[in-house]
Design a protein that fits this description.
The complex is a heterodimer of chains A (340) and B (316). By secondary structure, chain A is an alpha+beta fold. Chain A contains 11 helices and 12 strands. The radius of gyration of chain A is 22 Å and the shape is flat. In chain B, 43% of the residues are buried. The chains are: A alpha+beta (340), B alpha/beta (316).
């Protein structure tokens, strides 16, 4: 294991080096919200933040992207595939968002069927994770297996020790990212490592109070869906889809052909199983006609199907779905299921 | 427990016990003292869980869809306006609605409240109201904040703080607010040039994720098939981040809501990227008021705007 440290004041130098060969996406404030945005050259990344309002998945799985374009020419129709993947560094993502990428890696290659759009971006991405120092409100990452101190899927893990960050390069990509600004890094001393360890222990202790018991998720899902609590939940769901749009592991998309100058383009964009249109089949039949079936699908996918097919739950505990305007919190409801 | 909560429970109990209704739609306590959730009471036991306080933000008219028997709805001013709109548009028969009116001085906006308090959410033990203040009990004791700083923006300029139409009124009424500054929220937009306004909305709409939460939370958006979901033709391109489609979607929806918005602020409340949608809706509301002297959902007899025709309009 390769542990170095970088002074807080040298982080912009490091980022500038990374920007020589890649686009760096870092947390940014945009109006009323925070999200991952391409960092302009010369700007310092935001390092003191809780969690972004929008998940980091957007960098590798954008809200909408062009898949193919076609042009009408004298000779006929010319069709071209679009490959928008560029080398990127996802800088400063929280462990939950990083763990979510690990989930998406599995989801987008399930059964050997590889999604080229996501995978091309992912392969060219270097992920620099930034561990939390203070628990994000309502975060329950450890309850769903997120390694808050060294998340799976990260190439470099940064731990804030005050004036510096201890950096752990976990992969070759990570070593290259650190080597890009070798002079900004120094060997981490025992004192640094101790400080990092203490910060981690403090965080985990504080997160303990926010823990939810989500053991045996499949049993919990079955019991919740058979309860009167579920009647109330299903009845109040507005099918608004915020939970899915803000979820770092949700990855369903819709495909549309749309006109563009002189031809057209095929785009894909986020979609959600809570939407009526998502479920409607050709001919008009809808096997999930009400919010009950649709939210049920979301719950099943995350906590029953995903553990079975991907061997992990489809939740990383970021609690962004608590933005639900009618206070549906599936994880709290699952944790309160009577397991006796 | 507030007096109003007590009154709502007792009323609901009576309605359910007597069999006058089989369902009372209200709120119950959610996962935090500042969060309430819609609650569907079908038994006396359910009725005991109803609450009525500043946390009860959702517009409950969103849950009323062509009821086939009488349903009771605990309604604040905007909920009642929405219900009237639904009756005028054939979405609910008036005789199938039992409107239990409650006055409302504003409903909490979670984001504004947490930002104002700067406390970890789990440290907030209780949230109450006293006069024009919201009283929060935290680890360091009581914190008092002016109500207008922590309620939904839509509530700060709301005029209809008491249902204009209801079958039974619980608790005290609140007077209509002075109409003079009723559109003060639009002052900033008014002061802009057309180009500045276009730039402002360009920036706002470019954030839109096209999740359509605004639509789904809106009681007035009850179309079984929304124009934006139509693909033959495609009215609004789906390429997100693509300004054209986002513009068509947001302004298309605003057009469809002209003279039909109850100003409850639900769309703005649910928008996950913070688009100030009520500015659009209020702009339309003012225009409709100016041109047709129409404000949606204010009386039981009111016809919908598009069904109104006055001779004076023909001459132009």
């Amino acid at each position: 294991m390769d542990r170095t440290k970088i002074a807080r004041s040298r982080v912009p130098d490091w980022v500038a080096k990374l920007q020589e060969s890649a686009d760096v996406y870092a947390p940014a404030v945009q109006g009323d919200i925070t999200c991952f945005a391409r960092l302009p050259k010369g700007a310092a990344p935001l390092l003191d933040y809780g969690n972004t309002d929008l998940p980091a998945k957007e960098v590798l799985f954008p809200q909408s992207e062009c898949m193919i374009r076609w042009q009408r020419t004298r000779e006929g129709l010319s069709v071209s595939e679009v490959d928008a993947a560029r080398p990127v560094v996802l800088f400063g993502a929280r462990p939950c968002d990083v763990t979510a990428l690990n989930f998406l890696d599995r989801a987008f290659s399930l059964g050997g069927i590889v999604d080229p759009y996501y995978t091309r971006r992912r392969e060219k991405a270097t992920v620099v994770a930034l561990c939390c120092t203070k628990p994000v409100p309502n975060c329950f990452g450890p309850s769903v297996g997120v390694n808050e101190l060294s998340p799976e899927g990260a190439d470099v893990v940064l731990t804030d020790t005050g004036d510096a960050f201890v950096a752990e390069a976990k992969t070759e990509k990570g070593q290259a990212a650190v080597a890009a600004a070798g002079d900004a890094f120094a060997a981490a001393t025992d004192t640094d490592l101790q400080a990092a360890q203490q910060a981690g222990e403090r965080l985990l202790a504080e997160l303990e109070v926010q823990k939810l018991n989500l053991d045996e998720p499949q049993t919990r899902v079955a019991r919740l869906m058979g309860s009167s609590e579920w009647d109330q939940i299903a009845r109040r769901c507005l099918s608004c889809g915020i939970c899915a749009f803000l979820c770092p592991t949700c990855h369903c998309f819709d495909i549309w052909d749309q006109p563009a100058r002189g031809g057209g383009e095929r785009i894909r964009c986020y979609d959600t199983c809570t939407s009526k249109l998502y479920n409607r089949q050709a001919g008009g039949h809808n096997p999930r006609p009400t919010p009950r079936e649709r939210l049920g699908q979301r719950l099943l996918h995350k906590f029953a199907y995903a553990p079975e097919r991907l061997e992990v739950v489809g939740c990383v505990g970021c609690a962004r779905c608590r933005r639900c305007p009618v206070d549906i919190d599936l994880q709290i409801s699952l944790s309160e299921v009577d397991m006796a | 427990m507030t007096d109003l909560t007590d009154a709502v429970r007792s009323k609901a109990r009576g309605l359910l016990e007597s069999g006058e209704v089989k369902l009372v739609i209200g709120h119950t306590r959610g996962t935090a003292p500042y969060r309430a959730r819609p609650w569907f009471a079908t038994s006396v036991g359910d009725a005991e869980k109803l609450i009525c306080d500043a946390s009860c933000a959702a517009n409950l008219a969103a849950y009323v869809a062509k009821p086939t028997e009488k349903v009771a709805v605990v309604a604040k001013g905007c909920d009642a306006r929405s219900l009237m709109l639904l009756t005028s548009e054939g979405q609910a028969a008036r005789e199938n609605l039992l409107i239990v009116g409650v006055a409302c001085a504003g409903r909490l906006d979670e984001g504004r409240l947490l930002a104002r308090l700067d406390l970890p959410p789990r440290d907030i033990r209780s949230v109450g109201e006293e006069g024009d203040e919201v009283v929060v009990e935290g680890p360091a004791g009581e914190v008092r904040v002016p109500r207008d700083e922590v309620v939904m923006p839509a509530c700060t300029w709301c005029r209809v703080r008491t249902p204009a139409v209801c079958d039974v009124m619980l608790g005290d009424s609140l007077p209509l607010r002075d109409e003079a500054d009723a559109y003060a929220d639009l002052a900033e937009l008014d002061a802009m040039t057309e180009a500045q306004r276009a730039a402002f909305w360009h920036e706002q709409f470019s954030k839109c994720l096209r999740c359509y939460a605004c639509r789904n939370a809106c009681p007035s958006c009850f179309c079984p098939d929304c124009f934006v979901d139509c693909f033959q033709p495609q009215w609004a391109l789906r390429g997100g981040g693509q300004f054209g489609g986002n513009w068509i979607w947001n302004l298309g929806r605003a057009q469809h809501l002209a003279g039909r918005c109850a100003a409850c602020g639900s769309c703005e409340r649910v928008c996950p990227v913070g688009i100030p949608l009520m500015l659009v809706n209020r702009w339309m509301e003012r225009e409709v008021k100016r041109q047709f002297n129409h404000l949606a959902g204010m009386t039981a007899e009111q016809k919908q705007l598009a069904a109104l025709f006055r001779k004076s309009e023909a001459t132009g």
